[in-house]
Amino acid sequence: MKVFKSVTDLGDLNVALREAFEIKADRFKYSELGRNKTALLIFFNNSLRTRLSTQKAAMNLGMNVIVLDVNQGAWKLETERGVIMDGDKSEHLLEAIPVMASYCDIIGVRSFARFESREDDYGEKILNQFIQYSGKPVFFMESATVHPLQSFADLITIEEYKERPRPKVVMTWAPHPKALPQAVPNSFAEWMNAADVDFVITHPEGYELDPQFVGDARVEYDQMKAFEGADFVYAKNWSCPGVTRPEDYGKVLSQDMSWTVGERQMAVTNNAHFMHCLPVRRNMIVTDDVIESPRSLVIPEAANREISATVVLKRMLEAL
Ligand code: CP
Fold first, then answer.
1. Could you give the maximum distance between any two Cα atoms of the chain, in Å?
2. Does domain 3-146+305-318 have CATH number 3.40.50.1370?
């Protein structure tokens, strides 16, 4: 595997899940595979889970790891070609990428949506430059539009906790004080469409996700109706994707607290498990009671980030 950004990059999903559970049973089984190989993890944005779980995954495989926080200690990077660099940016990404690539075998990059241009964000301008100019395998550690390591971990978690075949999985928008990217909901929708689940998306009008990710999912604007009989509830905020009104891209259109996931909504589910990728704003996205309930999976879900990252790095090492 040379690039990991989509569910399709893993091939047969059942094979990938079997590999995940094999690694979960013995996470050091492939500890020789990465000997004398180096993973470079580049962060343009903050992280707790992705940073730690991916580092741990690389160590499970015997790799060396270098972590770079671009905005803390490195030169500020210009990303646009043609800019006269007379400002605060000392280095261009077009030199920085091949230099960084020369020190490693596999590169992971986190670079969120900037909300300056929908075209740039959905064109994955930053990550595509890493793919084009590094000459190394590149995996997405949350880009402008996708977060595949998270969605793979979410799928592993659903497989572990499902109590019936083809469970009903509901992804719900929930309020948040700041504008957040659509990477997590986009990927989750993409991965659920590929999985053997009954998938429903619910959000207020105006928050329609890009059709390439929504796929065949059912979209239900009435949150309570969407929650009926759900086995898993996946909560997430996202800002306006700009599908119906491009001028609203990246805006917060609603802070309707009636969408906060609480006992009222969970009561109409099939005793659903609650999921969220974390970090989460309590009592905005979800109430204390729901996130602390025995049906909450937020901690096992985060723990499975180590497993999804180990499978992805293993696949990349095997293809070197
Ligand atoms: N869920 C997730 O990616 O967490 P971090 O932003 O802390 O890495």
1. 60
2. yes
